[in-house]
Structures are given as structure tokens and as C-alpha cells.
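1st attempt posting a full record on here, be nice pls
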Amino acid sequence: MVYKSAPGDKVFVSWSGGKDSYLSLLLAKDRGLDVVCLLCFTGGDGHSRSHGLKTEMLKNQALALDIPLEMKEVTWESYEKGFEEAVQSLKKKYGFTGGVFGDVNLAGHREWVDKMCRHCSINFNLPLWMMDERKVSEELIKRGGKAILVAIRSDLVDQRWLGRVMDKEYIDYCIKNNISPCGEGGEAHTLVIDGPFFNQPLEYIPGEIKHDQQRALLEISAV
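the predicted structure (as C-alpha cells):
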């Protein structure tokens, strides 16, 4: 775990809608950080950049968590510029002094977070940093969080898992097949539908499965 902010400091959570950003939110709250908003980056197609989730689902998630959601439209090429613009603007709106990120062990991701947060003059916090990959998923389940699998690397993960809740059976499946149980390498992405701080479970309708190169994505729509 890496914390640069002190208990009571205002922070945003870099938000994907998946288990890592949600577990980071829970751990940040355990630390006593004051989470004032969620920050998500989107494409121009009504979906999030990170997990390809419909923005309506992310909005409903934020409503269920009773935390403001801020979204910034970017391309992959303009991501850094968009991050800086969003953070500088929202600093004035919310008065936060740091950000919370869900990275686990990818050195390049930590370096990017460090660089961008220094550039924006804010602290960064990595509650999951260097946590055992199995324990990341187990901790979510232990805390009562429920996340469904919405995207997989179809060359690594059996498609039967799409739409299912990530549970002990899935973790055991990953371990048996030498797959990261927390998907740190992009093996799978999730959508959190219930857990601590949700005022009600997230309602959704599973749709068709789309294929994009090696990925299979389950379209999820709001009720």
C-alpha cells in the first residue's frame, strides 16, 4: 500500500467501475481519506475508456454510492492532456489534494501516476500496491463486494465466465490455469454491482457479447 495523503485529506478516486477502483475506494475510506468524487475518462461512443462500460451504468453506480461522478471525454492520444485538464478543473470545484488509483503491481502504471500527479501538484495513493493478486479479489469478496465479469481475454479465459459474479470458483479457475485472479494484465474486467456503501444493488440487463481482437465484451445496459 502507498499513501501520500493523510487521513482527512480530500481525494478523488480514479474510477473504472470495476473491482480494483472500488476496493481502492473502500481502503481509502478505511484510511480516513475524504472521497469527494469519482473521476472517469470516456470515449466519444458513450462508453468508458478503461473497461468499455456504458456511461449510464457508471452514473447509476455513482448514484448508488452517493458520490459525485465526473467524466472527461478523451482519446488515447489526448489522455494525459485530458487528465491534467480534468484534475486542475476539479481541484477548484472540490478542493481535493490527492487522487486514489487502483494499480496493483505494474511499474509503468505507477510511474505514470507519479508523473501526472506531480505535474498536477497533487498527492497520489495506491491502496492496492503490491498486494498479492489473489488477495485483491479475495479481499473484495470478503468485504461483501459483488463484481460481474464484463470483459475477458478470450484466448485466456473461458467465455462461460462472462456475466458471472467473480467468486471463489473463478479465483480457483484462474489459479489452476495460471491466469491472474485480479486481471492485472488485462485478462478480465469487472463491473461492481453491490457492496459496502451501495444504497441499493445496481440493476442491469446483460446484452450481446461483442468481440474485439482477443477480447470478448458483454454489453451491459441499465434497467
